[in-house]
Amino acid sequence: MKMDSNAAAVVTGGASGLGAATVKALRDLGVKVAIFDMNAETGEKKAAETGALFCHVNVMDEASVDAGFAKARAAHGQERYLVNCAGGGRGGKTIARDKQTGEIKPFNVADFEWVLGLNTVGTFRCIVKSAAGMATLEPDEDGARGAIVNTGSVAAEDGQVGQVAYAAAKAAIKGMTLVIARDLSNEGIRINTILPGIMATPPMLGVKTRAPAIFESLSKSVPFPRRLGHPEEYADLAVTMLRNGYFNGETVRLDGAIRMPPR
């Protein structure tokens, strides 16, 4: 499939960080892009900068996602590409003890459900909606109709203390990738997942401002190169996964060879 002005894409979480870098990379190729994001101010600004379309979308809400796809398709036509970057976490150990009183504090199950709802269910919801639309397209000479990229995390494989909800959510995204690739194979739709390591996204850049020593330590913990990953490096891999017609059903770490310690 050619990535040019005849093609359309949707990027969830596209207002900042990994998603914003992916929006720019796709727009640089001429692809028509719709940004799905909850942050209207940042999303509108990024859309204006890149020539993309902003759609105010909450991936945890069915009606909101439906409205986003309807708006994007009315403007750009049916998308051939979907990149899922929307996500987030709420930290906490499975059970913890109060340092002063010794009181046992269980992890809030509602928070666990929220993290899975945002990351795993939100990703799957957008996959289902987008794939159903892609299946209506005419296939190219290879029989291809579309391609999808998901965002997991290295936490899917080596989650740290206090990351139980986030690690579970990202591991679920990893686990469903091959199954979805098989489900969609007869429709000519590919899907792959990226597991980023420590990336220079806005939350991590905030650490650099608040606690430069911690930021420096995190950078040095990466075997090589000894720095945080650039969002543009994520975007480059996402575009490769979308463009390479034989790239399917894979989960790939993008992490400078880091393996996260327990803490």
Automatic annotation (TrEMBL):
Keyword annotations from UniProtKB, A to Z: Oxidoreductase
Recorded superkingdom: Bacteria
Alphabetized InterPro entries for the sequence: NAD(P)-bd_dom_sf, Sc_DH/Rdtase_CS, SDR_fam
TM spans (from-to): none
Family label: Belongs to the short-chain dehydrogenases/reductases (SDR) family.
Name the UniProt record assigns to this protein: NAD(P)-dependent dehydrogenase (Short-subunit alcohol dehydrogenase family)
Organism, as annotated: Caulobacter ginsengisoli
